[in-house]
Amino acid sequence: MKPAPFEYVAPESLQAALEALGRHGSDAKILAGGQSLMPLLNLRLLKPSVIIDLNQIDELSYIVELPAGLSIGAMTRQSKIEDSELIRRRCPLISEATKHIGHVAIRHRGTVGGSLVHADPSAELPAVALALDANFQVVGSRGIRTIPAQQFFLDYLTTAIGPDEILKEITFPAMQPNTGYAVLEVARRHGDFALAGVVTVLNLDAGGKIADVRIALFGVALTAVRALKMEAALKDHRPDLNIIREASALLDEVTDPPSDIHASAEYRKKVTAILTVRALERALSRCGKGEI
Amino acid sequence: MTGTASGFIGQSMKPREATRLLKGGGVYVADIHLPNIVHAAVLRSTHAHARILNIDVNNALRLDGVILVLTGRDIAGQILPFPDSFEIHPASWLENVKPVLKGPRPTVLAQGKVHYVGEPVAIVVAEDRYIAEDAVDAIFVEYEELPAVVDPEEALRPDATLVHQEFDDNVMFHFNIKKGDADRAIRDAPHKLGERFRHHRYCGAPMECRGVVASPGPKPELLTVWSSTQVPHSVRRQIAVQLGLIEDRIRVIAPNVGGGFGPKVFVYPEEILVPYLTLQLGRPVKWVEDRREHFISTAHGRDQVHDVEIAFDEEGRILGLRDRFLLDNGAYNPMGVTDAYNTAAHLQGPYKIPNLSITGTCVATNKVPNAPYRGAGRPEAVFVIERCLDLIAKRLELDPAEVRLRNFVQPEDMPYNAGILYRDGQPVCYDSGNYPETLQRALDAVNYASLRREQKALRQQKRYLGIGIGCYVEGTGVGSFEGAKVQIDSSGHIIASTGASAHGQGHETIFSQIAADLWGVDPNQVTIIEGDTNCIPYGGGTFGSRSTVNAGTAIFEASARLKEKILKLAAHLLEANPADLEIGQEKVSVRGLPQRAVSFRELARAAVPGWASQLPEAMEPGLETTFYYVPPTVTWANAIHIAVIEVDIETGKIELRDYVVSHDSGRLVNPMLVDGQIHGGVAQGIGGALYEELVYDQDGQILTSTFMNYLIPGSMEVPKIRTVHLESPSPLNPLGVKGLGEGGAIAPPAAIANALVDALSLFNVEVNELPLKPDRVLQLLGKDRDRSKGKILEPNLNLP
Question: I need a labelling partner for B98 at 20 to 30 A (CA). Which of A79, A223, B247, B331 fits?
Answer without folding.
Answer: B331
